[in-house]
Amino acid sequence: MPPTSQRGKASGSTGVKVKAEKTTRSRVQKTETDSEDPCEGSSQHQNDEYTDGRDHDDEEEDEEGEDDGSTRGNKRQRVNANGDARSSRAPTEEEDDDDEQPAQNLPKMKTLPRDVDGFIPGSIVRIQLHNFVTYDYVEFRPGPYLNMIVGPNGTGKSSIACAIALGLNFSPKILGRASELNAFVKNGTDAGYIEIELKGPAGRGNLIIRRNLSGKDRKSSFTLNGQPATGKEVTAKMAELNVQVENLWYVDSALTSKLLLKTEQPSSSFLPQDKVSSFAAMTPQQLLIETQKAAGDPNLSSWFETLKEEGKHLKVSAQKLKDDQAMVKQMRERNENIERDVERFREREKLEKEIEELDVFIPFTLYRELRVQYIEAKEQQRVTHKRMMRLKSTNEPAHKLERKLDADAKKASEKREQQKKAMVAKASALKKKQGESDKLDGEADNLMNKLSSLKKNEKDRQRNIKTKEAELEKIQEELDRPPPQLPDPADLAEEQKQINLEKLALNRDTEEHNTAMREVVEKKMSAKRAAEDARRQMQQLDTVDSKKLGLLRKWDLDTHDAVLWLRRNKDKFKMEVLEPPILSVTVKDPNYAALVEAGFAGVQMRTIVAQCREDLNTLNHYVNDTTQALGRRVRVPTWHRPHVEKLPPPPFSPQQMNDLGFEGYIYDYIEHPQGMENYLQSEMNLHRIPITRNPRIDIGRAMEYMGNVGGGVFINGTTYNTVTRSRYGRKAVGNMTRDIPPARNFDVPPVDTGEMNRLHSIVQQNEMETAQADEEKARIQLLLDEATQKDKTLRQRIDVVKSRREAIKREQERIQRFQSKLKKSKSDLEALRNAPSAEEERGRLKKKLMDISKKRIKIARDYTALAEDIYREQIECTNAGLQHAQALCNHAALKALCAVKDEKYTKASAEFAEADKKYRALKDQSHAVLKETLELIGDNDELRDKMHAVEDARTQYDKECAAAKAAGRKAPDPEGVDLRTSEELSVELEDRKAQLETMMAANPGVVEEYENRKRSIEQLDRTVEGTEEKIRRHNKKIKMHKDQWLPALQKLVGSIGARFSAAFERIGCAGEIRIREDEDFEQWAIEIYVKFRDHEKLQLLTGQRQSGGERSLTTILYLMSLTEEARAPFSLVDEINQGMDQRAERMVHNSMVEVTCKEDSAQYFLITPKLLTDLNYHERMKVLCVNNGEWLPEERSLGNMMNMIEGFVQRSRASRGAHSA
What we know:
alpha+beta, Rossmann fold, five-stranded parallel β-sheet, elongated, disordered N terminus, Structural maintenance of chromosomes protein 5
């Protein structure tokens, strides 16, 4: 075995010969294995990946700028999640509003001019590797145009791609391999390096970049032209050559479909191996973003980001404007609805205010009118009083005598009245004596009657005494009668207490029994329900469809949910949409289930089949393209192809099938719905896969027969055979086999024994619990019956005790009743026996009669004396009456005489009385009206001021009128002066009250609501104006940026589209690139439409509609078109032809040669493990063959393939020359 220090040697610029050691690089393999899981190891190496491309000084500089909370944190420009170089600080509202001019445009990067040697500055001139992956040492020089790196798998072609990436300070993560730099150092060595020579600008030297790698840690270092340098210095130097190290095209390892990293114009393209297929999985929106980053004006991305941001702001503002305008409209409508109520309320409020003022003005006006009358009445009263007093003084002597006679008459009248009162008093005393005498006369009559009936009363008393004595004897006999036999009350009380205790204990036991009974019943019902649920689940386990649905649900929840949705929405489809084969296809013979299932791939087993294109589009729209069906984004496999009239024939004839021992084709052993045959035959070719359960057939003959028809598949026993025929050399037949597992989908899953046993045990357990509950229930029922019987016995005992107590009570009541009767009878008998005798009573009555007679004699004497006094008083009274009559006559005669003399005085006095009465009445009335007015005004200063203003104006007007009248002038104009009378005001008040009564009352809260809403409307109007201004500014900024962005984007997409369409046209297909516009800039997208067959229409490229080869072909052609537009100094793609058929691979190769070998084309690297025959080549392209193996010679001068080719050519020419000589 050769030593591990073997080396390879390059032969100038024409080829590569390298030698690799046989030892496998376990470290790289382990790292690659670990990186297969995108979730594992990504976070722990994230920082390492970021620092791999920089030296230690760079790390310290970054750490200084990332101090949390520092005011310097926003000074540095960082790369955001989208790869855009922007400040991490979000713009403020003021900055956003003031930004009326587009951001400063980035300078348009241009490809530097090509040098005389054909290389564009920035192109790779030389690559040298030492202890890198599988290489000990290698050096080669690529050409300035297309460089095709060819070599078998495992010889280290992709390691060259890794070397370019790492040597130019790319991050290892884009490679999809190891994430640590030391994993790329050759196993068993401590260090290695990568040296890349880049073409310098014309007239200047080349740039030689060396990256030294350590096998012990993750550190690395750089040199530029032999001098130490940092990663930033390397990046800066390459930026001068338009090689932006962070502007790679890549598809990340998590297959999230990214295409570009930064916003600057990319100047190098890099597509690692096995990442092409995920390009088609990108959304059209992502494709637009990444395309803008990849090519065209360098400001496209920044313009687009501005448009998206402004679009978001515009959308928010527009929605806010819409909401605010709707709110304003709603609030205005609500105010309009209550505006009539508000006007009515205000009109009513105005009327009420007018009524309030009139209520004050009326009495105040009345007071003013009464005051005028009062002044006039006061003057009249003074005049009449003066005339009356003058006449009165003239007649004063006669009136003085008249007054004296009047006084004499009054004295006589008083004396007469006194005499009359004395007469009345004595008459009353006389009458009283008469009444006393009559009363004593009545008492004497009563005593006489009692004397006459005294004997009869004595006889009645003796009889009553005997009756009472007999009654006493009977009562005593009742009391002396012995009582009945009754129990002792104390014993009864003790017995009752004992019964109560027993009753309490019995109730407690009964309640416990009832509680236990309820628990048992509930336990029984719960057990019954659980048993029924288990039985129902056992029935469901035995249903075939439910078994299959359950299996599908465990396998693919999205397809399971889509099938359930399909069953509920059959009306949305024109024809029947067929459920996946796992549900709709059944195997006729279960013995063939595993063989049949082997003919189905996993995705084929889960594919929903549509019978027409319209139904397929409908299905994809609801299920895959939108969230309308399942409420989430899913990817459910669907299928439709036009019906194929002529299917490819089976590979074997019936005779061959019989000779080989095949029992039939898969299609013969299945049953399916009508319409599924097109999918099963044209898509899956089940009619061309022969099967047999016999594992011992002649495999050689079967391979031979299958190879004769170009290859195919057959199944024997548990072996799946894939027969292929080589297209090269002798076209040998090969067979690749694999074991088929037991059927899982078509073998209807048996009943889950474990689950069935579990459910059966649940049923048994619950039935047992039910039986136990019944037994417990019966036992408790016996206890309850026993308690009921005890309760009945206790109740009977209680009734006996109660009856005994009532008997004792009745006896006690009887004794008490007779004792009361005995006591009363004794008392009555004692009273009768103690009553006085008849003689004693007679003496007592006679004595009373004597006393009464004496009193009557005394009263008669007093009566006689009073009668005499009355007679004398009558005489005096008559004299006083005569004197009084004389005095009255004298006064009347003098008064008549004075009346004749006082006729004028009387008239004057009457006039004065009338004037005084009127004066006083007006005075009281005006005071009352003034008081009423002041009470009505109260604390209402506004009303008081208004009243004073009216009064002042009226007073001033009256003064002017008086002055004009005195001067003989015309009265002044009363304009502005309230001249209404109280009556006119009263009429007006009644009119206002009538209007108020006819006006419906309004809720005072309506006005407050109206005013509050009116203020809110005004505020919202101001808000709407501000929002409209914001929208205007947003629209202005959008138009300004769109006017720059859209033409540049259309130019870029048009250029890419023209190249893309031309590329498709060259291979006999059709392709278009379209810009999908939308109101929302977030939804703007680039859509790729392709057509690979003449009968098809252009269809949108998706991850589901096209085959893998079609997607790969589309991806490569788009990237090539994009590469032409990008004009990078160099580009690299690794094994892009994987998954293509020969036709597509040939077309892509020829197209790539044509594009990359033009005079103005940049450097291009194409890595491929194989080449087809008869491909197009160009004199500008360079083929680098990787000659890598275990047994290469140690000397670097040996084994140079180009030297061998040139030697062969020279010998051939020399031989031809010798022959011709």
